[in-house]
Design goal:
With 235 residues, the chain is α/β, with parallel strands linked by helices. It contains eleven helices and ten strands. The chain has two domains: 159 residues, 3-Layer(aba) Sandwich (Rossmann fold), CATH 3.40.50.300; 66 residues, no CATH class. The strands form two sheets. A six-stranded mixed sheet has the order 6-7-8-3-9-10, sandwiched between helices. A four-stranded antiparallel sheet has the order 2-1-4-5, covered by helices on one side. It is globular.
Length: 235
């Protein structure tokens, strides 16, 4: 479904990604893990069209993404849930959800999409008239994920969805991702919670200093000596 091939990305004169390649097949959940500053967020922004690679290519279902503006990427059935949630805090939960149905294919299916996300996140239905900024951190993360789902994506990309959440809420977020994947949503997950991400995902990539240094199944990476020592504290 998604093929990222040898992309190089810079901020001005500073290179951030070096010949990064990855693939995501339809129906998979794939994790890209690594420490803070490894380039994970830059990679997602580049796939979304917010940044341009200086070289390499990005294809989704056989179409080039690296040559189209970001609003066209949304129309190609890709949703990006950014780090930090980026909600509209002084607007209602319902308005935040409805604005997620920006893509033309999603505008005529708002009612069905609302039913879907309210089934996944009942608390959002209860609080749909509440201002988004008054929700708890976990509820705001649920709203950010639900807003992404309102665009009816075939590929859902999430940037650090567990960041800053209490452990019980982290478990809830990963349970929801598993449910979505079971329902056929293809997921590309960027996470610092490496153990949980690799345990959940079909395959994973380890990004260090802007380069992919390891790839394999989630279990293979969890058993990898470098991952154990560098990220899981197991010597």
């Amino acid at each position: 479904m998604l093929e990222v091939k040898n992309i190089n990305v810079s901020y001005g004169l500073v290179r951030v990604l070096w010949d990064v390649s990855l693939t995501v097949r339809e129906g998979e959940m794939v994790a890209t893990v690594g420490s803070n500053g490894a380039g994970k967020t830059t990679m997602l922004k580049t796939i979304s069209g917010l940044l341009r690679p200086s070289s390499g290519s990005i294809q989704f279902n056989g179409e080039r993404l690296d040559q189209v503006p970001s609003y066209s990427v949304i129309e190609k059935e890709i949703a990006h849930v950014p780090e930090g949630r980026r909600l509209f805090p002084f607007s209602s939960v319902l308005w935040n959800l409805e604005i997620g149905a920006y893509a033309s294919r999603a505008r005529g299916n708002i009612r069905e999409s609302l039913e879907f996300v309210f089934e996944l996140f009942p608390v959002l239905k209860e609080r749909q008239k509440q201002l988004a900024g008054t929700l708890s951190g976990g509820e705001q993360q649920m709203l950010a994920i639900a807003r992404g789902l309102m665009s009816m994506p075939h590929l859902l990309m999430l940037d650090e969805p567990s960041l800053g959440l209490a452990p019980i809420l982290v478990n809830k977020v990963f349970e929801v991702l598993e449910q979505l994947n079971d329902r056929g949503v293809t997921i590309l997950l960027v996470e610092q919670n490496i153990h949980s991400a690799l345990h959940l995902c079909d395959r994973g990539y380890v990004l260090e200093n802007g380069r992919i240094v390891l790839e394999g199944s989630g279990q293979e990476l969890l058993n990898n000596p470098h991952v154990k020592e560098a990220y899981l504290g197991i010597v």
